[in-house]
Amino acid sequence: MTQKTINTELLQAIDAIERRGSFARGALELGKTSSALSYTIQKFEEQLGLAIYRRQGRRSVLTPAGQLLLAEGREILQTTARLAQRAHEIATGWESRITIGVESLFPYPLLWPQLEQFMRQHPTIELDLCEHILNGGWEALQQQRIDLLIGAGGPLPSQQGLSSAALAPLPLQAVIGAAHPLSHLAASEAGCEQLFQQARRVVSHDTSVTDIARSAGLGQHGSRFFVQTIEQKQAAIVSGIGIGHLPLHRIADQLTDGLLLPLRPPQAAAQPALLAWRMANKGRGLQALRQQLLSALAAPPTTR
């Protein structure tokens, strides 16, 4: 039994007729005469052994089989269009996917609008986001598990074929939860110094696997309580388990509500943030995304 196949010419014809509302207007869109378009439909009806259109008064309407061809055919046309565009982009140096690593301290609300704009401008490029802590992002970049690293703390690893540009620094604040039994010490500079020396510190695990892991924060005094994510760190500090640095953008409301108390000096410290990539990666999509992020998020120029 000969297999009956459907090609995109038929699907495009049905789509044009239904979108335009008639054979005549559909033919005009396709650059054909009405008689030529009618012949195309009749030819495929004979090949497939089914009716695609039937007469209803003075109009031609889709049969149930024709409605199926229209609905699923449009999905096929969209898929083939994306496939053709993706193949063209790959052939001309555009990637099909970019994997992005984000330092856990980085404020995502600054990132979402930039990624949405990039995907709108490059609809065939998929973005794959993952989160890293401390050395974990550098390791992932060196091992080619990510293409771009956003918000990494310095310094840039030397002799690794990496390049970077400065983003706006990330404000951090040392805090203690109001529920902590020693939270009253946060009211004075001397009390804060006592907390820095004695209080348990809440520390996020470095996501590095093969590199030497490190932690960042309030020095090496006192015991430590380790967590996996920045969300866990924030919740642990609020609950009174210990003290630690947190991104100011995450805790502004809790500082205002009194759930968290700043440790002196009350002003937030700024952690340097870098945008980093492998110099050997010449993908045009990566270059476009990098330029867009730097235009929107780069550190302001220094003045003397």
From TrEMBL:
Residue ranges constituting the HTH lysR-type domain according to the UniProt record: 6-63
Q: Which keywords does the record carry?
A: DNA-binding, Transcription, Transcription regulation
Instruction: Say if the entry is tagged with keyword DNA-binding.
Output: yes
Q: Which domain of life is it from?
A: Bacteria
- Entry-linked InterPro entries: LysR_HTH_N, LysR_subst-bd, WH-like_DNA-bd_sf, WH_DNA-bd_sf
Q: Name one GO molecular function term.
A: DNA-binding transcription factor activity
- Record's family? Belongs to the LysR transcriptional regulatory family.
Protein name, entry field: LysR family transcriptional regulator
Task: Look up and give the organism this protein is from.
Answer: Gammaproteobacteria bacterium LSUCC0057
